[in-house]
Amino acid sequence: MRFSHLLLSPLFAASTMALLLLPQTVRAFGTATTTKTIIAAFSSSHHAKKTLPKFLGRSTFRAIRNKEVTIPLMSSSSSEEVTTEEIDWEQYHNKNNLNDQVFSAISGDGGIKVTAATVRNLVNEFMIMHSLTEVPIDALGRTATCSVLLSNGMQDEQVFQVSMNGDGPLRGIVAIANGKGEVRGYVGNPGIGSMSLQEAVGKGTVNVVKNHPDWPNPYNGITAIRDGDIDRDIGIYLAESEQRSCALAAATTVNGILCTSAGGYLVEQLPDCSEETMKRVETNLATLVEKDGTDKLPTGLLNTGVTPLEIAEIILDGLDMKPLQQIEPKAACHCTEERLFRAVRLLPKEEVDDILKKEEQIEARCQFCGKVYRMGPDEVAERFANAQGDPSKDSDMNL
Questions:
Q1: What would the pLDDT profile of 222-256 be if each residue is shown by its tens digit?
Q2: Kind and range of the H or E element at 208?
Q3: Taking a C-beta distance cutoff of 8 angstroms, is the pair 231, 264 a contact?
Q4: Which residues, if any, are the signal sequence (predicted)?
């Protein structure tokens, strides 16, 4: 039983911190993470019961599993449980999409989960932070939207990273989001001129990684870039690698140097979804395309000002929709001077000494927020003297 739209799959992902060194100290910083590829197929309900809590969040999974009358209602200010009759739908309305919003809901029978997002403010913040031109804004906006959608329902500290490692002029795209809705990202070349998104991305690989501070190792997977439309390529990755049946769509609208709309939706088929529910969702998705009125779903739809709640209502129409979570995604970087030093420790001591001798300091710039860090010889020597443990095994390096 599969969506006719796009087929995706269970999400195994993680995140790695990336700092870009200034040219004179490029040798002073670098990390390599050994990851393990996991391919999971939800071929049985037993397997789903063991793994779905990780990907959907345990409270969401319990509601689905038990088909409870009361559901966990999570927002930025509340985690109370309410009955269907007590739901205050007004709190989910986001008039004119003034605020960025991620809203998720589930069908009454627990067979379908829908997550919808609008992230215009987030994308414009990235534009200012990285001085992005039109094509990079579009590329990072779509990638960040997918990251936000796919991280929904995770534990707060759990992170989802997607990287488009293409050989096009963009020189790669990275977006990372965690369960709290904190998002960061960058493109390799923020100032490229006018061209198609496919040309800018080029050929290469889609890398999806998932991690948590308590996990001994991150998990990752990889497929080839087939299309260059980003959300479609991420969908292909999830379908081929992880066998989950979903529909994923993301889009941005850029006018000059301003993003006027950005967002998307993720529709996930859960275990034991009935044939009746499945057919109703497919019909509703077709209605969504008609409401969009263009061949570029969801671009035209977002330009009408439709909110995440309204998208979910359309997709789950007639299926007794129940809210699961509402958060406001925010740009947030986790770079620190301590992380810089951990990366420096991965280099041979002789190489570090050589850089300090030539440059008199180690200098690095965070790719996610642009902050510059500097360490002089005395500070480096003191930190080496007090350092303990193996930096390559520090899980914090992978977040």
A1: 999 998 999 999 999 988 988 888 999 999 999 88
A2: strand 204-211
A3: yes
A4: 1-28
Give the per-residue pLDDT at 349: 84
Q: Which two structure tokens, joined as six digits, stand for 127?
A: 């534009």
Calpha distance 12→257 (Å, rounded): 34
Q: What residue has token string 């992902």?
A: 13
Extents of the domains making up the chain = 91-331, 337-386
Check whether domain 91-331 has CATH 3.40.50.620, yes or no? no
Beta-bridge partners for 321: none
DSSP sequence for 136-156: HHHHHHHHHHHHHHHHTTS-T
Helix (H) or strand (E) holding 182: strand 182-187
- How deeply is 372 buried, as exposed, middle or buried, from its count of CB atoms within 10 A (0-12, 13-18, 19+)? exposed
Q: Which of 208, 247, 227 is nearest to 7 (CA)?
A: 247
Name the residue type at position 203.
K
Where does 337-386 sit in CATH, by number? 3.90.1280.10
Say how many CA atoms lie within 13 Å of 173 toward its Cβ. 38
Q: How far is Cα 347 from Cα 318, in angstroms, rounded to an integer?
A: 59
- Give the full edge-to-edge strand order of the sheet including 372-375: 19-21, 362-366, 372-375
The pLDDT tens digits of the residues spanning 73-115 come to 333 333 344 455 567 766 666 665 688 999 999 999 999 999 9
